[in-house]
Amino acid sequence: MKETGNLSINSENFLPIIKKWLYTDKDIFIRELVSNACDAVTKLKKLMLMGEADHIPAEEAFQVRVLLNKDEKTLQIVDNGIGMTDEEIKKYINQIAFSGAADFLAKYEEKAEGDNEIIGHFGLGFYSAFMVANKVEIDTLSYQQGAAAAKWSCADGIDYEMSDGSRTERGTTITLYLSEDGEEFLDETKLYAALHKYCAFMPVPIFVDILSKEDEAEETPAEKDNTIHISEEEAASLTKEEILAKAQEKTEKTEEEKEEPKPLNDPSPLWLKQPRDCTEEEYKEFYHKVFFDLNDPLFWIHLNMDYPFRLKGILYFPKLVEQMDVVEGQIKLYSNQVYIADNIREVVPEFLLLLKGVLDCPDMPLNVSRSALQNDGYVEKMNSYITKKVADKLNQLFKSDRSAYEGFWDDIGMFFKYGCMREESLYDKIKDALLLKTTDGVYETIAEYLEKNKEKHENKIFFVTDEAQQAQYIRMFKEQGLEAAILTSPVDKPFVSFLEYKNPGVKVQRIDADITDTLQEKKDGEESEAKKQADEYANTKMETLFREALSKEDLKVKAEHLKTASVSAMILLSEDSRRMMEMME
Ligand code: ADP
Ligand code: MG
């Protein structure tokens, strides 16, 4: 059988489009080809479940192999999945953008139970191979009984050639003859990097083989040491049976040491398990492994939703790294266990970007290159679901163990304040669990703070932004039995205004602004005439002094008496003026 033809696409400009526009990162071909191989296995497993492939043993070891041959400059992706007949090659490969995955799903929709775990659906992924190869071959044998192996070969993605295939076992071998553009993948570190990036959690075990003459020459395979060493005296004291037993033991040990090779990937990632089946250790281990963070996370949220859309994942709240100004999280996005990208702002609710986690959203409407979204209705729904989960978790921690919760607060407070400002609905859900750490060394909710201090100052929250700089004021406050919230992180500045906005009637002000009302003695009875005069004198004097010093004609200065032992005089700047200045900055 030999047949040639022209790919049924009307444009010869097709490959340049793929190369330049569709896929920005070259290494994406790994994702596409390995995910196709996984799909091939998933499809076959589905058929087996439906009783449509009974000739295949149930315990079949499905796998994907990636073979790099440095001398031949080829890279092969080999699977033992569903395979293709030559008719199927014509349909799924020659007709570009006719997605076989969509076709398969449509065909088995009613019959297939459960979810659609098939990765492909754009029908273009295969052609990403031409980003790194000048020639691509498919050698494939369909699972169908009596099927003939078929081969497809295409140089530069323009003309194809089909002939009889050489595979004798079911499955597909894709061979890439790496072009100059793809030569970098002859370096196995590059290859491994791409595999770890995109395939770490793909659903079928993946194994890698690197072939190179050079390596073979270097590697003089050390003779397996199967001899047993027994001294003459020892030998004399042992019976023949005992010596045989020793030898036997040795062989068994060597065999045990030859462990089963481990796949590169973890085909059943933790996020897909039911939360009730996961242990604390597993969550921590997964965190350390995926985020290269040796610290334990503080706590985590396991998202597990099937309806009305599927969303699985784990969000971790990391410990803040001391002295780090920028908090940088990492949210890894997956679709059906295939890595898409990190921190996609269009998809992941912005406040989550401070956390670390994995999100697997198979229903996400991605575009062909899978790096961007096609519409955002989905994002909104996902957003509100995640927000609710985060709020629930926080409230539950707050209620179930207040002291542990307070222990977390310094680490998570900044995240939640930021989250509330970004997502007002989050504030509404968690406002009763937001804490203020005060100069008394305690943690209070806003309601608790207001209640505790209402005798001294009603509906006012005082705060400190710099404990060293404002030490004087803190001391003065303490002398009078007052306390202030410590709000020193960068999010606190806008958060103060946000708190006022969300709590109408409550004034939030810095410890060195507008505090005279609070500090002064309640005016009981007449003020002495002398004091009044002194005040007026001070006022005019001070105003003139400051106006001159700052050359500001219209400066307003107000002098007042203080009721405090530790300070004889202090300069205060009103809360509103300061905030205005901060805003200008
Ligand atoms: P998609 O995966 O979105 O369907 P692709 O361009 O990646 O599109 O692949 C096109 C089609 O080619 C697949 O849907 C599938 O039918 C077929 N195909 C590709 N690779 C394999 C493979 N390894 N085994 C069996 N069929 C394959
Ligand atoms: Mg595909």
From TrEMBL:
Q: Name one Pfam family in it.
A: HATPase_c_3
Chain spans, region Disordered: 247-272
Among its keywords, does the record have Repeat?
no
Q: Superkingdom of this entry's organism?
A: Bacteria
Per UniProt, the ranges with Basic and acidic residues bias are: 247-263
Checking InterPro entries in the record gives: HATPase_C_sf (IPR036890), HSP90_C (IPR037196), Hsp90_fam (IPR001404), Hsp90_N (IPR020575), Ribosomal_Su5_D2-typ_SF (IPR020568)
Keywords, alphabetical: ATP-binding, Chaperone, Nucleotide-binding
Give the protein family.
Belongs to the heat shock protein 90 family.
Q: What name appears for this protein in its UniProt entry?
A: Molecular chaperone HtpG
Lineage, highest ranks first:
Bacteria, Bacillati, Bacillota, Clostridia, Lachnospirales
Which gene is transcribed and translated to give this protein? htpG
